[in-house]
Amino acid sequence: MINFTKRNLLVFFKDKASVFFSLLSVFIIIGMYALFLGDVWTSGMADIPGARFLMDSWIVAGLVAVTSVTTTMGAFGTMVEDQSKKIIKDIRSSPLPRVSIAGGYILSAFIIGSIMCVVALVLCEVYILAGGGTLLGGMQLLKVFGLILLSTFSNTALVLFFVSFFRSNNAFSIASTIIGTIIGFMMGIYIPIGQLPDGVQWVIKLFPPSHSALLLRQVIMEDAIKASFANAPAGMMENFSSMLGVSFKIGDTVVTPIMSIALLVGSGILFLALAILNLSRKKK
Question: How far apart are the first and last CA of the chain?
């Protein structure tokens, strides 16, 4: 399985187009933020100290969460291409067990997603530092790395479930484009969650990848929020967190980090089982 995983990693990273398009939604978000969204959001925050650092940290957390979805989607393109070009028949005729083949695809997608999330985080930290912000501390980086692994696991399983329905490159490309387009909305990046209708907010709060963004925001924005709201009136920070998706409230229940982690782990296991079941049915 290890050698097959290495093969999938080499196939993905040799195809520069796949690497680029898996990060396309990230580039789009960065471009929109740098050109006008950043100024739009900070223009009404003149009374909040360190507003730019605060919003830069917010967008960074969302970008890392988005990357954990789009890059794993791009990684599974190798599996779809193997199926569409009938390469999978040659692979299955080898002595490699079926479970090792499936495991190789899943493990390579997980590794690719994790690596690209770390790359995105490093680039975003450079952007924050260039904009006058401060870098994350050692403990915060460890927490973010742990959340990257958790998010990538959960999103790898979710993406695999969707990809298990595709047998052609055309269908996969269309699905990748759609997911890359809507993922920014589903994670509350283009439009803050608090500005959306209640029904849409409910959908977002039940969408597993949005909890990746939630957890990452709570860690990455920790210092920025403390600095910006140190002397703010009571309740101002709570309203800000609710509006920007730094905290979730479902009904009267505030979603705790443990609840978000449990949702990500549970959904990851569930969608992984469903994906394997769907793929096994196709083989029959």
Answer: 23
